[in-house]
């Protein structure tokens, strides 16, 4: 598939609560790691939840592979 999302990142204040929300909502598997919490969606696409400890607290980044195999990050901060 062209321009498929290959990874995502969800920024938040509380990684444990956010990971639990997505795990329950979508039945994703959660793997705690030292700097973030990995989310396994059950398919090819995976991602992670992270807390930076400073602004911006709430954001999303989607990484997309273009037709040449380059990875492009699309960032959105939420209020």
Question: How would you explain this protein's 3D organization?
Answer:
- By secondary structure, this protein is an alpha+beta fold.
- The protein has one domain: 2,3-Dihydroxybiphenyl 1,2-Dioxygenase, domain 1.
- It is built from 1 helix and 6 strands, in the order E-H-E-E-E-E-E.
- The protein has a 6-stranded mixed beta sheet with strand order 2-3-4-1-5-6, with helices on one face.
- Strand 2 and strand 3 form a beta hairpin.
- The longest helix is centred in the first third of the chain and has 12 residues.
- It is globular and about 35 Å long.
Can I get a quick summary?
The chain is of the alpha+beta class and 79 residues long.
Helices and strands, in order, run as EHEEEEE
Query: Taking all residues together, what is the mean pLDDT?
Result: 85
Helix content: 10-25%
The assigned CATH architecture is Roll
Instruction: Compute the separation of the termini in Å.
Output: 32 Å
Task: Tell me the name of the CATH class.
Answer: Alpha Beta
Taking pLDDT < 50 over at least 5 consecutive residues as the criterion, the unreliable ranges are none
Secondary structure blueprint with pairings:
Layout: E1 5-11, H1 15-26, E2 29-32, E3 37-40, E4 46-50, E5 59-65, E6 71-77
Parallel strand pairs: 1-4
Antiparallel strand pairs: 1-5, 2-3, 3-4, 5-6
Jot down its keywords:
79 residues; alpha+beta; 2,3-Dihydroxybiphenyl 1,2-Dioxygenase, domain 1; six-stranded mixed sheet; 15% helix
């Amino acid at each position: 598939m062209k321009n498929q999302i290959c990874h995502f990142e969800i920024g938040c204040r509380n990684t444990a609560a956010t990971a639990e929300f997505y795990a329950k909502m979508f039945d994703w598997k959660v793997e705690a790691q030292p700097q973030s919490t990995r989310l396994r969606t059950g398919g090819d696409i995976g991602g992670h939840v992270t807390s930076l400890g400073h602004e911006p607290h709430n954001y999303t980044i989607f990484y997309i592979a273009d037709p040449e195999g380059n990875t492009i990050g699309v960032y959105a901060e939420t209020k």
